[in-house]
Amino acid sequence: MDRARKAIGTLLVFCFLPLFAEQVEVNADNFFADESKFMGEFSGKVKITKGKDVLMADKVIIYFDAKKNPTKYVASGNAKFRVFIKNKTYDGSGSELVYEPAPNLYTINGNGFLHEIESDKKVYGEKITVNQNSGTYNVNSGKKEPVKFIFQVEDKK
User: Fold this and answer.
1) What is the C-alpha to C-alpha distance for residues 133 and 7, in angstroms, rounded to an integer?
2) In the prediction, which pLDDT does 130 show?
3) Could you tell me the domains of the chain?
4) Is 156 helix (H, G, I), strand (E, B) or coil?
5) Measured by CB atoms within 10 angstroms of the end CB, which terminus of the chain is less buried, N or C?
6) Residue 21 exposed, middle or buried by CB count within 10 Å (0-12, 13-18, 19+)
7) Where in this chain does the record put each Organic solvent tolerance-like N-terminal domain (predicted)?
8) What are the Cα distances from residue 12, in Å, to 56, 97, 99, 140?
9) What is the longest distance spanned by two Cα atoms in the chain?
10) pTM here?
């Protein structure tokens, strides 16, 4: 029965979404759509794949515009991702992950972590924002913890 629900969730999202230049695949245990609110909610072992990018969480809500194009993805509960931005690989996690496709904006809210794999740079903060279009990063600390940035330095002797 679980496989049937996952298959139905995957099938329904493709009925709800228009055709894209790059295919988006969503797998989840449960799926709910409200066309009047332009949203689809996936829950239970959610995995969203678009090209090489992957988003995993316990729950993901996808918001759409009138043409049924996704405008925002909001992931919560064990939210993690791996994305490829400007030939670099990033792993991230947080209490809530938000991706807005139009401005190419990634936001990690609550207990945020971002790791650039190639350079082994790591950033921790309460809110981490990455603007893919401008190549800018903004990290804010919480009231209890400072922003933490970890990177490697080569000693030249």
Assistant:
1) 34
2) 87
3) 24-150 (2.60.450.10)
4) coil
5) C
6) exposed
7) 25-135
8) 19, 23, 21, 38
9) 65
10) 0.78
